[in-house]
Amino acid sequence: MSHLFALPAPSSLPIAGRSARFPVHRIYCIGRNYVDHAREMGMAVNRAQPVFFLKPADAVVTDGADVPYPPATTDLHHEVEMVVALAKGGRDIAVEHALGHVFGYGVGLDLTRRDLQAAAKQAGMPWDSAKAFDHSAPVSTLHPVTAIGHPAHIELSLEVNGVLRQRTDIDAMVFSVAETIHELSRLWTLAPGDLIFTGTPAGVAALQPGDHFRATLGAIALLEGSMI
Ligand code: MN
Q1: Domains, the chain, ordered by start
Q2: In whole angstroms, what is the distance from residue 115 CA to residue 98 CA?
């Protein structure tokens, strides 16, 4: 079968210690997964109802690359998040089997046009233009479970221009990684190549052109880049 034209190659991420890259299928995100961030946004956490949204796979920006300041906003926010990469997919994945689907972990920024999100919330409209824009998903090199296991008590942090903006222990997540995979798989068929942004702690704030960001997941993963 021939196609009318060729699509761009899929987005991909480097893998520590391997020459092969991780092809990105979908990017799922969970909102309000740290109580302190939900509180700073004036929202309550609902244990019965996780908040999910998606970004397009080609929103990925790799470590070290510049991030262009997006159009149509004057309030671009950083949200530092642990990123989970799936090696196996499926539907209705049980919590106790969920971690067996994980390929590895990294750290990323869920970049958000906060002004558009506030307007969308106010109007009861979807979040896509606030969350799913071009270059909205910088992600570090991925670190395979075979090398690092499953991080449990580990610090997630973000510095901008050398100043600490966000810091938490990932054990403060409302929905654990296993619970998040379980909940997502009730709503979508998960697949190898899927990434999951696992939510951000308090301290979200604005980025400006010229800012340098440095996000870390303990000693495991590092993401650096500049806003241009
Ligand atoms: Mn987020």
Answers
A1: 12-226 (3.90.850.10)
A2: 35
Partners of residue 27 on adjacent β-strands: 55, 195
Å from CA of 100 to ligand 1 middle? 24
Closest by alpha carbon to 60, among 116, 165, 141? 141
Evaluate whether 35 touches 174 at the Cβ level (below 8 Å): yes
CA–CA gap between residue 214 and residue 163 (Å, rounded) = 10
- Report the C-alpha gap between 196 and 53 in whole angstroms: 10
Task: State the Cα angle at 27 between 25 and 29, rounded to 5°.
Answer: 160
Q: How far is the CA of 1 from the centre of ligand 1 (A)?
A: 40
Instruction: Indicate the helix (H) or strand (E) that contains 170.
Output: none
pTM above 0.90, yes or no: yes
- pLDDT classification of 149: cutoffs 50, 70, 90: very high
Closest C-alpha to 165, from 113, 203, 216, 217: 203
